[in-house]
Structure to design on (159 residues):
């Protein structure tokens, strides 16, 4: 069922749905508001948007704008990818354009994303303390080969 709006109401709805202006600015653009105060314009714009037919129209226009933006974005992406593929296949084997086109195509599909995984283990203070003591103990244990030599005054002397 089509909602019947006047020409000024349709203009207001399109201006609000565009997202580029405030409700008051949209009201001033669609209606003759030169003799109205700012407060009156805000009140009238708010009343107009409170109308169920108007709010449905604005929502429908916003949804249509989103669909158009997404379609344009996909279309642009497809054209860029098509151009990159063409440059990649038509360039000379050692051409830097070919390499760059391949690189950009790879980036567009996420081939060059580095993933770093961090694993975190929650431990209490006591378990950390025990682990530190164990590690320090293993470092302080000396073997016969690494045992420090003590210089005896009778056996060796430094003069």
């Amino acid at each position: 069922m089509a909602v019947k709006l006047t020409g000024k109401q349709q203009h207001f709805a399109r201006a609000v749905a565009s997202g580029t202006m405030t409700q008051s600015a949209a009201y001033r653009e669609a209606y003759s508001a030169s003799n109205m105060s700012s407060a009156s314009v805000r009140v009238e714009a708010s009343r107009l948007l409170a109308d169920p037919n108007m709010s449905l129209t604005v929502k429908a226009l916003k949804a249509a704008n989103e669909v158009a933006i997404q379609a344009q974005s996909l279309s642009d992406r497809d054209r860029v990818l098509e151009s990159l593929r063409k440059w990649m296949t038509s360039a000379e084997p050692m051409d830097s354009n070919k390499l760059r086109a391949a690189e950009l195509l790879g980036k567009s599909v996420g081939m060059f994303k580095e993933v770093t995984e961090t694993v975190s283990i929650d431990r209490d203070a006591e378990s950390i303390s025990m682990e530190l003591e164990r590690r320090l103990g293993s470092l302080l244990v000396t073997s016969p080969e690494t045992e420090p030599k003590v210089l005896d005054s009778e056996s060796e002397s430094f003069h």
The longest helix spans residues 52-90. Helices lie at 7-18, 23-30, 38-50, 52-90, 96-108, 125-140.
